[in-house]
Inverse folding.
């Protein structure tokens, strides 16, 4: 599946007005979203630092051997990404609530009355080709049984950090509109899983990542077959039409590709 997106920033003072505009545009009430994101990074293949000037115990002195060695190093260094477990907070009755007006976004949601629906998410780095919207490969898998952190560790992913996302989601034709911002989460205590939410502070007491309270609006279309140009063109056309419709409220644009880079930096071991 491929994701095509445009992004815009909204000052906190414009939040309520934009909510009303989006509700009118989509003819729906906003769906409240509260998520916990747990970030993992892929580990480099063991022994990468030992891949030097020898192949098979002999000197890699020929040009062909050097090329083979370079291809080996490239292979070992590629495909190392950040991935996430995303936990959607649901009331105990599994019914999503709606919000008609959230004001500054402060709320008193409590963890003890919530169930968590976990999804494993991989997002590739956006494509480098010149285009009108950010385009990248995405994959999501429901992941609600067993020790997820241990499972990912066994597959070469180690815990990095966690945070929460609050916002509202709308739908317009094939486009998902997600108005949101991020709050920080404390690191898990020793011997406590990063996915454990039983001992977290009240939501409204979690500090904002951006102290100004600014929101991000993501307009997104997902297409099943990203290799079909017709589907790409249709999705791009919908995003550009929406951009023009909302231009008096928010500037939707393609972000810097490297700002959405999901690759783990390659570092040298001492």
């Amino acid at each position: 599946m491929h994701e095509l997106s445009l992004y815009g920033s909204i000052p906190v003072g414009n939040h309520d007005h934009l909510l009303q505009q989006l509700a009118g545009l989509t003819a729906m009430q906003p769906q409240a979203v509260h998520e916990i994101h747990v970030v993992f990074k892929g580990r480099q293949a063991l022994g990468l630092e030992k891949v030097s000037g020898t192949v098979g115990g002999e000197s890699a002195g020929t040009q062909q051997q050097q090329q083979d060695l370079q291809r080996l190093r490239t292979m070992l260094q590629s495909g190392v990404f950040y991935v996430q477990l995303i936990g959607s907070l649901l009331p105990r009755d599994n019914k999503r609530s709606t919000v008609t007006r959230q004001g500054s976004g402060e709320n008193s949601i409590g963890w003890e009355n919530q169930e968590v629906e976990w999804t494993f998410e991989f997002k590739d780095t956006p494509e480098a080709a010149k285009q009108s919207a950010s385009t990248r490969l995405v994959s999501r898998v429901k992941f609600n049984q067993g020790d997820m952190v241990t499972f990912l560790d066994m597959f070469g992913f180690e815990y990095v950090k966690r945070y929460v996302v609050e916002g509202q989601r709308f739908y317009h034709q094939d486009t998902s509109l997600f108005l949101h911002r991020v709050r920080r989460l404390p690191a898990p205590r020793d011997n406590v899983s990063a996915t454990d939410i039983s001992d977290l502070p009240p939501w409204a007491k979690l500090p904002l990542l951006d102290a100004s309270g600014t929101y991000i609006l993501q307009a997104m279309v997902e297409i099943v077959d990203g290799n079909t140009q017709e589907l790409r063109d249709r999705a791009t056309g919908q995003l550009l039409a929406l951009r023009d419709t909302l231009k008096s409220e928010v500037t939707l644009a393609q972000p810097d590709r490297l700002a959405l880079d999901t690759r783990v930096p390659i570092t040298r071991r001492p």
User: Anything to note?
Assistant: The beta strands are 2-10, 31-42, 54-55, 58-59, 82-91, 114-123, 134-142, 157-172, 175-184, 215-223. The first helix runs from residue 15 to 26.
